[in-house]
Write a structure and sequence with these properties.
single chain, TIM Barrel, eight-stranded parallel β-sheet, two-stranded antiparallel ribbon, 43% helix, FMN-dep_DH, Alpha-hydroxy-acid oxidizing enzyme
Length: 382
């Protein structure tokens, strides 16, 4: 049966992917308080319903950094898209291209930005930057992105440590992937993924690697990085952000902001936007929910910079709730990964289409004919 919603795609992805792989993309960190809180915050938010407005054709388009998008959606950078489906990053980029929305390439993707651009020609690519210990290698990434004509850079700042994911230790999966009895049995019981994804890589291009590492530092995902200079920077400060601002002449967006003070400081250093994000519950388990942090950040910097938001989007109404709380657009990550895991480009596009349809319906039910009408008063307060 064709999936009818993101939850259906999630269940289908759970059946298809090895348990370790599915839990890697699906679960949170530590006690998963943050993961549960994201959904609880969205579910607890109610929307005002207005009737007898002309909502015959709600306009879901918006302008982000001078570009008109048919949906207020950007596909989030995710490091494992290339593992849920063969050439998963290319498949996701093609789905985004078909929908007319941007796809953000991850620093730790399995496919290089150049190969994604070639495989999804015409796609609107953004780039997400993690800063390496070797800042020279970071500057090389910026030069490569510029050479491709990429204009929008997401500087991810909320991952100063590798988060604690105890369940990955128990299920035998992690990056790097380490041989284990549990992991081996997991692969044997999921032959479709093992043959269609991993075996295909092994027989063609070899075991996947982090494609943005320089060739001399590149290792397969079965081995830990042994060179310190390609590890993510442990000491990351506002000076690094300012340095990237000097190097990058496109739009610079700080990702992982949950405090108005940080948003204001980013603005003072020349940021063009922020992503209000609790990293989908995958980093600090006790972080505030992005939806809760968003209004104060919007009050502090709204109108002076672009405000994006992410974490936990499963329904079109979730998009409305983020926009009503102050976001100009949202980033969607796990939902389109589920789609990609089920059917590559077709599956990812299926998820985008569902979110677009639900967004249209939610706008109609709440009496909003265009996104600019989704303001703070769209949220019902008893």
């Amino acid at each position: 049966m064709k999936p009818l919603n993101v939850a259906d795609y999630r269940l289908a992805a759970k059946r298809r992917l090895p348990r370790g792989m599915f839990e890697y993309i699906d679960r949170g960190t530590e006690d998963e308080v943050g993961l549960r809180g994201i959904r609880s915050a969205l579910d607890a938010t109610r929307l005002n319903q207005h009737v007898l407005n002309d909502v015959s054709a709600p306009d879901t388009s918006t302008v982000i950094f001078g570009e008109t998008l048919p949906l207020p959606v950007i596909i989030s950078p995710t490091a494992v898209a290339g593992l849920v489906w063969h050439d998963g990053e290319v498949q996701l980029a093609r789905a985004a291209r078909a929908a007319g929305i941007p796809f953000c390439v991850a620093t730790q993707s399995m496919t290089s930005m150049e190969d994604i651009a070639a495989g999804a020609e015409g796609a609107n690519l953004w780039f997400q930057l993690y800063v390496f210990e070797d800042r020279g290698l970071t500057r090389d990434l910026l030069r490569r992105a510029k050479a491709l004509g990429i204009r929008n850079l997401l500087f991810t700042a909320d991952t100063p440590r590798s988060p604690k994911k105890e369940w990955n230790t128990r299920n035998g999966f992690g990056i790097p992937i380490k041989p284990s009895l549990a992991g081996g049995l997991d692969l044997l019981t999921h032959p479709r993924w093992s043959l269609a994804v991993m075996a295909r890589y092994v027989l063609t291009t070899g075991v996947p690697t982090y494609a943005h590492y320089p060739p001399e530092y590149r290792t397969s995902i079965t081995r830990a990085a042994v060179w310190d200079n390609v590890k993510l920077a442990r000491r990351l400060t506002w000076d690094d952000f300012a340095e990237v601002r000097r190097e990058w002449d496109g739009n610079l967006i700080l990702k992982g902001v949950l405090s108005p003070a940080d948003a204001e400081r980013a603005l003072s250093l020349g940021a063009d936007g922020v992503v209000v994000s609790c990293h989908g519950g995958r980093n600090l388990d006790s972080a505030p929910m992005a939806l809760d942090a968003l209004p104060k950040i919007a009050d502090a910097v709204g109108g002076r910079m672009t405000i994006l938001a992410d974490s936990g989007i499963r329904r079109g109404s979730d998009i409305v709730k983020y926009i009503a709380s102050g976001a100009d657009a949202v980033l969607v990550g796990r939902a389109t990964l589920y789609g990609t895991a089920v059917g590559g480009e077709k599956g990812a596009k299926g998820v985008i289409d569902i979110l677009a349809e639900e967004l249209d319906h939610c706008m109609a039910f709440t009496g909003r004919s265009r996104l600019s009408e989704i303001t703070r008063d769209a949220i019902w307060r008893p």
